[in-house]
């Protein structure tokens, strides 16, 4: 977010003082995307991801545990695929020397790293929740206030 602020301020200063820094818009966009991806795992662990609790809220005991395990298993698989393909994109962009089409000509693998790191940390967070649910400690954490739905 600091990167976004710096790029916006540089852009404003450039307009006021009549100079142009090429790429500030692109770098603000890269910083915003990076901040979003890097915040995914933290948002999950704070319980701020949107959950539909219409069904799961009515379940108790083994049925609730089974549905939570199924949901978390799907989340682990999907976030794992997301992380795998994000890293694959980084490697391919580097291999092909892919650069942005803007006047900044940034090698795209550099801003893509933030997406890959963010999705990898999200995968780790889902794996942690999956293991806690499997061991029956996730519900206890909910009551202690360390994890909210």
Number of domains: 1
The helix count comes to: 6
- Give the helix/strand class: mainly alpha
How is the quaternary structure best described? single chain
Average residue pLDDT? 87
Model regions low in confidence, pLDDT < 50 over at least 5 residues: 140-149
Q: What is the N-to-C order of secondary-structure elements (H for helix, E for strand)?
A: HHHHHH
**What's the N-to-C terminus distance?**
26 Å
> What is the count of β-strands?
0
The major pleated sheet works out as: none
Shape: elongated
Proportion in β-strands: under 5%
Percentage of residues in helical conformation: over 70%
Q: What is the rounded Rg? A: 20 Å
Q: Could you walk me through the main structural features you see in this protein, from its secondary elements to its overall organization?
A:
The chain is mainly α. The protein has one domain. 70% of the residues lie in helices and 0% in strands. The chain contains six helices and no strands. Helix 2 runs parallel beside helix 5. The longest helix is centred in the middle third of the chain and has 35 residues. It is elongated. The two termini are 26 Å apart. The C terminus is likely disordered.
SSE layout and pairing:
Elements: H1 2-17, H2 24-38, H3 40-45, H4 61-95, H5 109-134, H6 138-144
Helix pairs in contact: 1-2, 2-5, 4-5
Structural features:
single chain, 149 residues, mainly alpha, 6 helices
Summarize this structure briefly:
The chain is an all-alpha fold. It has helices at residues 2-17, 24-38, 40-45, 61-95, 109-134, 138-144.
């Amino acid at each position: 977010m600091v990167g976004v602020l710096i790029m916006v301020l540089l852009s404003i200063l450039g307009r006021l003082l009549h100079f142009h820094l090429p790429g500030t818009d692109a770098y603000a966009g890269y910083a915003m995307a990076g901040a979003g991806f890097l915040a995914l795992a933290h948002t999950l662990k704070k319980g701020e991801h949107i959950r539909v609790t219409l069904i799961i809220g009515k379940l108790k005991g083994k049925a609730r545990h089974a549905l939570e395990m199924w949901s978390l298993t799907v989340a682990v698989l999907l976030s794992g695929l997301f992380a795998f393909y994000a890293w694959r994109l980084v490697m391919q962009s580097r291999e092909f020397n892919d650069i942005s089409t803007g006047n900044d000509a940034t090698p795209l693998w550099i801003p893509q790293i933030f997406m890959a790191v963010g999705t990898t940390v999200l995968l780790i967070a889902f794996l942690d929740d999956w293991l806690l649910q499997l061991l029956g400690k996730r519900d206890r954490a909910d009551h202690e206030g360390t994890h909210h739905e």
